[in-house]
Specification:
The chain is mostly helical. The chain has one domain. It has eight helices and no strands. The radius of gyration is 21 Å and the shape is elongated. The model has no long low-confidence stretch (mean pLDDT 85).
Length: 260
């Protein structure tokens, strides 16, 4: 790929941001217009939700296990091993649960959306949809946006619970803590702001980021099969970076409001 002059590179990035903003606005606006393609929405919900369950369960479970194991050394110094449940629950619910779920869905579905739509773009299927009077954004982008916004919070809840279960297993089998002590500690550590931040707001924002970035790179694919592979990689990288950026922004907002 040729190296672009700085001014050309900057113009291309600004144009890309503009195109992404227009796509996002149209996709969100199409939620409130008809027709709404329910079959496509349910298909995407199955692909995003059910298809992502195994990797979400595995990543959440072992993250909870590692959190419990790593917390032992620090908590033992202060004689606070009984607070293992609090540490695991706060870490999973506020931060690791939504971020890990977003990253897993990003790697699996943002890349998949870019690949699928990119293949349709280079084979001129999207142009054929326009010729038949069908809006590609309403048909292809909006269902993926809705499905991701619905399924990602549910996947985050599953990841949080599985992570807590993994921490409970380590606490009982390795640290010899009582089950009631662990779950009471985990439950009492959480507040409504923690649940709202990590279980609702972050997953919804990540869902918008993941779905729209995947669709954006898919719809701007050029260059045949090589372009499809390039768009897939770009979508996954961009979605991953944006998850970290938006996570930092949301966390900073809650901390500044005194709810962090």
């Amino acid at each position: 790929m040729p190296i672009l002059p700085p001014d050309v590179f900057i113009k291309k990035q600004i144009a890309a941001v503009q195109e992404y903003s227009i796509l996002s606005g149209r996709a969100i606006a199409d939620i409130f217009s008809r027709p709404l393609y329910w079959d496509d929405i349910f298909t995407q919900m199955d692909s995003i939700g059910v298809g992502s369950l195994p990797i979400i369960i595995l990543s959440g479970f072992f993250t909870g296990c590692v959190l419990a194991l790593q917390s032992v050394t620090a908590l033992q110094e202060f004689g606070a091993v009984s607070k293992t449940g609090s540490l695991v629950s706060l870490s999973m619910v506020k931060e690791l649960g939504p971020v890990l779920t977003g990253l897993m869905v990003s790697g699996r579905n943002a890349a998949g959306m870019a690949s699928e739509l990119g293949s349709m773009k280079v084979t001129e299927q999207i142009d054929a949809m326009r010729a038949l009077g069908t809006d590609p954004i309403q048909k292809l982008v909006t269902p993926r946006l809705l499905a991701t916004c619905f399924m990602l919070p549910l996947l985050t809840i599953i990841a949080d619970f599985v992570g807590l279960f993994g921490g409970w297993m380590i606490s009982v089998l390795r640290l010899h803590l009582g089950s009631r002590l662990y779950w009471n500690s985990a439950w009492q550590a959480l507040e409504w702001n923690d649940v709202a931040q990590g279980g609702l707001i972050k997953p919804l924002v990540f869902a918008v980021v993941v779905s729209l970035i995947g669709c954006f790179y898919g719809l701007r694919t050029t260059g045949g099969t090589q372009g499809v592979g390039r768009s897939t990689t770009q979508a996954m990288v961009a979605a991953t970076i944006m998850i970290f950026i938006t996570d930092a922004m949301i966390t900073e907002f809650f901390v500044s409001q005194g709810g962090g």
